[in-house]
Amino acid sequence: MKERVAHVEAMARKIRQEAIQMIYQAQSGHPGGSLSEADILAALYFDELNVRPGEPDWAERDRFILSKGHACPGLYAALALRGFFGMEHLGTLRQFGSILQGHPVMQKVPGLDMTTGSLGQGLSVACGMAIGLRRAGMDSRVYALLGDGECDEGQVWEAAMTASKYGLGNLCAIVDHNGLQNDSTTSVVQPQENIAERFGAFGWRSVQINGHDAWQILDALDDAKRHPGQPTLILARTVKGKGVSFMENIVSWHGTAPNDRQFEEAMKELEG
Amino acid sequence: MAATRDAFGHGVMELAQNDPRIYVVDCDISKSMKTVEFSRKFPQQHINVGIAEQNGAGVCAGLATLGNIPFLSTYAVFASMRACEQVRTSICYPHLNVKLACGHGGLTPANDGATHQAIEDVAIMRALPGMTVVMGADYHSAKALTKAAAYYDGPVYLRYTRDSVPDFYGPDETFEIGKGKLLRSGGAVTVVCFGELLHEALAAAQQLQAEGIAVDLIDMHTVKPLDTALLRESISRTGRCVTVEDHNVIGGLGSAVGEWMAENQCGRLIRIGLQDRFGQSGPYETLLKTYGMDRCAIADAVRRLAAE
User: Which of A88, A186, B37, B55 has the most CB atoms at less than 10 Å from its CB?
Assistant: First the structure.
């Protein structure tokens, strides 16, 4: 486990560096959420997910949906680092003709399982995948990463009911609970302090972890597999902007690119 | 006489007999959409998400990413408006192979009133890139088009009537999505129909024939992609066109044909349909008469153009 944790931590650091580099180069994108989700993405792509970078459409692979699609710089970095496409693409984020659109498009990006960007839609798609995979007799698992602000959307709760009704033990949803959304804190915009309890009330197993502790993330992902008849919700408590001190817990870093000076400072901190 | 939603229920059953990729995703109206038998016979290919159409659209998208052919089974107002953005972003944008099977298209839930009468759905669906929009005029055409839609690339919007409509086609008639049917070739005026009002147009054509006005009559069961070759073939001769649809005149068949005619500088157009207003409860025939969409209104429009 120690080695797994160390590997995930190292990859999370790289994801953060690449995400900030991409957003800086594009001068556009969402750094806050890309940093808060980095440890979760690292745990998924460098430990948990059964995927084949050389065969991205492999039918028996595990699926991952970034329902909070705006945080795609983190995902693009994870996919490139995992070997799904060349690192040189990362510099093209949000540029004309790039495979790396401002919000992720499945036909353009090798290894990307679903087009997202409009909040609230990913968990329903994950349910469809989980039901279809199970009925096809496949052991593949489905993971969806949601934002806490995203849980304002009613469709999330429609999907939560479906997952519960069909006992989708092959589905694991993770909420990146960083406590901030576009306008302000979630507590001001629409309080989301009881997400775990709500999913529990909807019939899910729910666990709460520190979303920056690789050990806890891996443990929660491992544990989810031991409950074949019930979907699992991992509420990952995170810090928006994690790893760059001046971005941490600051609402305005939701969708702002760093300038030259900020970029240099951020990279210095992320290199440690 | 049969409601074309029956054709959906029967058509999708026949599809599933031979194809395990066919799914029906119901939204608590399986009795109305005639999919109860499907759910009993093919439980492994059936999902009911309850009264949650947005979620249903997403579930279909997820199933389609695996290579399945899911049919979202709901009413036209819900698929086109409640779940509009899910259809756009989770289905059309990634061009997933989801079929939207929608009952209650147009005024045919006549007694239900305007909340359940979809009169904007075709306009909305036409505007989505990559969406195909189809409505059969009767039971057999609706069934054949349902089956054709399953193997047509990408998302397809299938619109059905709630109420019974007369039969016109035989069970062996063949239909190709995107290819309209020229049913009469008279040459005076082109009458283009979408959906069940074909029957009103047929009655009007018969009456007009007796008066010495022989029309071209087209069943344009696919409004997108529009069969412009057939339009060109007919309207280049007649120079005059009446469109007939159970939908707002804004954005549906009339708009589609009108856009094509304007761009090709070919002739006069009258659009029969709802004149930008909501419907109400009442007998279907009364509604058609009230809103100027029945055989008399169609015949009047043709006479006006023929006299020009």
Answer: B55
Residue A209 above 90 pLDDT? yes
pLDDT band with cut points at 50, 70 and 90 for residue A272: confident
The reply to whether ipTM tops 0.95 is: yes
Distances (CA, A) of A22 to A16, A30, A196, B213, B243: 10, 10, 33, 68, 52
CB B30 within 8 A of CB B168: no
Please list, residue by residue across B21-59, b when 16 or more beta carbons sit within 10 angstroms of its beta carbon and e when fewer do: bbbbbbbbbbebbbbeebbeebeebbbbbeebbbbbbbb
Domain membership of residue A106 as a residue range: 2-271
Residue B225: cis peptide before it, omega within 30 degrees of 0? yes
Q: Which residue of B has its CA nearest to A160?
A: B55
Per-residue pLDDT at A220: 98
Residues 6+ apart with CB under 8 A from A48: A62, A143, A218, A221
Using the Cβ of B98 and the Cβ atoms of chain A, whether some distance falls under 8 Å is answered with no
Mean pLDDT of A151-180: 98
pLDDT in tens, B139-153: 999 999 999 999 999
User: How far apart are the C-alpha atoms of A59 and B16, rounded to whole Å?
Assistant: 22
Asked if residues A146 and A68 have their Cβ atoms less than 8 Å apart, the reply is: yes
Q: What percent of chain B has pLDDT over 70?
A: 100
Task: Give the pLDDT of residue B133.
Answer: 98
Q: What pLDDT, on the 0 to 100 scale, is given for residue A57? A: 97
CA distances from A238 to A33, A178, A232 (A): 10, 5, 18
Per-residue pLDDT tens for B209-228? 999 999 999 999 999 999 99
What's chain A's average pLDDT?
Answer: 97
Spatial contact of B192 and B218, defined as CB atoms under 8 Å apart: yes
The CA distance from A112 to A131, in Å, is 19
Quote the CA–CA distance of A78 and A89 in Å, as a whole number: 12
Single-letter residue type at A179 = G
Q: Does B57 touch chain A (CB under 8 A)?
A: yes
Give how many domains chain A has, as a whole number. Answer: 1
H/E stretch holding B183: strand B181-184
Domains and CATH numbers, chain B: 4-159 (3.40.50.970), 181-306 (3.40.50.920)
Best interface-test mutation with B: which of A68, A123, A135, A166 has the largest number of B CBs within 10 A?
A135
Residue-wise pLDDT for A19-54, tens only, equals 999 999 999 999 999 999 999 999 999 999 999 999
Q: Which residues pair with A205 in a beta bridge?
A: A232
CATH number, domain containing residue A203: 3.40.50.970
Contacts of B214 (CB under 8 A, 6+ apart): B184, B186, B187, B188, B208
Across the interface, do A136 and B44 touch by the CB < 8 Å criterion?
Answer: no
Average pLDDT, stretch B166-191?
97
HSE-CB of B90 using CA atoms within 13 angstroms: 37
Rounded Cα distance, B77 and B98, in Å:
17
Q: Rounded mean pLDDT of B191-209?
A: 98
